[in-house]
Amino acid sequence: xxxxxxxxxxxxxxxxxxxxxxxxxxVFKADEAETAATYSISEWFLEPHSKGPGPHxxxxxxxxxxxxxxxxxxxxxxxxxxxxxxxxxxxxxxVTHDFANRTDKRAGVLNIYIPGGFERDMAxxxxxxENQPKA
Length: 135
Hints:
Elements: E1 17-21, E2 24-30, H1 32-35, E3 40-46, E4 50-51, E5 62-69, E6 72-76, E7 79-83, E8 88-91, E9 97-101, E10 107-114, H2 122-130
Antiparallel strand pairs: 1-2, 2-3, 3-10, 4-9, 5-8, 5-10, 6-7, 6-9
């Protein structure tokens, strides 16, 4: 089992590679090196009444969101939906999407990014958030 895709990944709650972005945080659970770039899996959390990354799309990647905590507002195309725990949303490649927490409690999603490689962008994403004016 020398192929990284075939080695088990076992993480306890909260474990993984963490990234802080103000009111938003992410923890990567599996990424390119561990999945032979077939997918990336991460958890994303937003504090109450906070915005996510802003509307965007990925030309070659699907983004799948599964709500794991609270209620996350998700933009898919031109429609915002309020998604509670257990909700599943897929934004196909090329579809504009975003997420936000419009509630009084923390909200979180499990994100599956297909194919993998999303973590390559995290240093730049964290730097971008650090350089935004504080509200």
